[in-house]
Amino acid sequence: TEIGAPSLSCKESRVGMSQGLAELKCSACSGEVERLSSDAKDLEKYLAEIPEWDLIKEGDVPKIQREYRMKNFNVGIEFFGNIRDVAEAEKHHPDLYLEGYQRVTVKIYTHKVQGLTVNDFILAAKIDKLEPKLSKYHKSKAQRKES
Predict the structure, then answer these.
(1) For residue 93, is it left (φ>0), alpha (ψ between -120 and 50) or beta?
(2) What PANTHER family would the database entry show (predicted)?
(3) Which of 24, 39, 93, 145 lies at 20 to 30 Å from 48 by C-alpha?
(4) CA-CA distance, 86 to 20, in Å (whole number)?
């Protein structure tokens, strides 16, 4: 747990970020949590800090998602544990999927507001700091767009 790490209030999230998202703390989801616009243009400043993540919609619920191709099944399970540790420290939890023994998908949104909050982007940035053992066949978002 990062003691003393600053959290980002809803007002600060609209004004701008003076630090990277990964250095911030998720704020508690008790009380009012401000849902961000689901318009991609409005989310650009957040998405720019997590370039490997995609903005998706499932039904009417906007989410951010990242896919990984892991070295093997055990590495995928180990990565789940590492994500769990980050999620527990932040008290904000993603949806995790392991398919085909190598493909890990992480989806993040705030269940309470059925949409995206600043917390989702903070968690994604913290997950990005993890260094999983990827398959030699893993493709970055840019590589996937090229193919």
Answers:
(1) beta
(2) PTERIN-4-ALPHA-CARBINOLAMINE DEHYDRATASE (PTHR12599:SF0)
(3) 93
(4) 16
Residue of 38, 26, 49, 4 lying closest to 118 (CA atoms) = 26
Number of domains in the chain: 1
The answer to the question of residue 2 being in a domain is no
Looking up residue 63, the CATH number of its domain turns out to be 3.30.1360.20
In a domain, 5, yes or no: no
Report yes or no on 111 lying in a domain.
yes
* Span 109-128, pLDDT tens digits: 999 999 999 999 999 999 99
The better pLDDT of the pair 68, 8 is held by: 68
The torsion angles phi and psi of 7, rounded to 5 degrees, stand at: -105, 160
Return the closest-CA partner of residue 13 out of 41, 44, 46: 46
pLDDT at 107 over 80: yes
Q: 53 in a domain, yes or no?
A: yes
Per the structure, the complete domain to which residue 91 belongs is given by 10-146
pTM across the whole model? 0.82
**Interstrand relation of 103-108 and 61-69 (parallel, antiparallel or unpaired):** antiparallel
Contact present, 13 and 37 (Cβ < 8 Å): no
pLDDT for residue 11 is more than 50: no
Structure tokens at 101: 């023994």
